[in-house]
Amino acid sequence: MGNPKAFLEIHRQEAGYRPIHDRIHDFGEVEQTLSTRERKLQASRCMDCGVPFCHWACPLGNKAPEWNDALYKGDWELAYRLLNSTNPFPEFTGRICPALCEKACVLNRFNHEPTTNREDECAITEMAFQEGFIQPKTDIERNGKKVAVIGAGPAGLAAANDLNHMGYKVTVFEKNEAAGGLLRYGIPNFKLNKAIIDRRIKLLEAEGIEFKYGEAIEVNDAFTKQFEAVVISTGTPTARDLKAPGRELKGVHFALEMLSQQNRVLAGMEFSKDERVTAKGKDVLVIGGGDTGSDCIGTAHRQGCKSVTQIEIMPKPVEGPEDPQNPWPNWPRTLKTTSSHEEGCTRRWNINTLEFIGKDGKLTGVKVQEIDWKPNPEGGRPIMVEKGKPEIIKAELVLLAMGFLKPEHPEYPKNVFVCGDSANGASLVVRAMASGRQTAQKVNSYLAK
Question: What letter would DSSP give residue 281?
Fold first, then answer.
């Protein structure tokens, strides 16, 4: 702990976003960076607490006090080694993690100015790549055993990375044309430039992991017998649907239909006019108030929409930094305003969707109604009650962003392991990576018997 008074003398400083008038015209990353001097000052604010709740809150168990101290002292290589000891891909979490560690930071309890852990780990990793601290491991001792990983999302990549370093011959099977899962086909480029994913995949390939793309694998005896172990990390591919009248109208789409297609367009893929899901010149309605819905808002602006409205069936979250229902160091379920929301959006809560309205097979609007939630006298889920009269929201494009259904798996042979969202349901990238690492340990323990 180089400066024991820094947390008292230096305020939290975030890098912030590019100006709205500039960023909405491209898909470049919206987040800016601090100078090296400013980044070191932010790292110095870490208190090196006796009980580091940041470490407790992080699913990966990141040792923020240690690598923040190394960063403050200017030892970027040590900072990366400490960071990478728990986090296999800090360039991902450094950009898109909600930073559970920061909400659990003692400084967040003290004055709501936690250490900038997420930005710090991104800066550390970018410096490590720039200075050549990150190089392929060429001295891995092989044990002659083969492991298949099905799905190249964050969980699968984390499992493959650890298993490869343990000496297994790892083959990753991915149904899409490139690796990354939702990192590539769900998260917009303005939050995560796909060159960041490509850089890491090249490193994994250089270390001996084999990637096979365009292969949808059926997990059966014929496949599993080719490997000593199989890891299933196929995520949650089934989006939650909304079976309201008019669902079949042209203009009603799942959020990922738009997001994945836009990312593919930016990668050079072409789509016909009929295939293209675009918000250009349209009034857009996003149904669902989470991060996926927010990503739809930002994408709609960049595609040239006329307007965006976002509705959520649940009540408006608590405003301000504290959540009485989830006090520190737990994650506060408070109102979140993203960079996409700042770009322009009408947000409404306690809104139920009744019907999709159209003309000549095309969507023209959505009938909705304000509702309220009353306590259930028998306990359990609150009861939804109508409030106010139905109304119609004009929309030529509706994006359903209501989450994903947890997959159901059959009983597999003992050498098959399931991890990430595929095992636990849709969650955070950092939790998927942690699950991938834990599964790699399970595979290793199983094969070591």
Answer: T
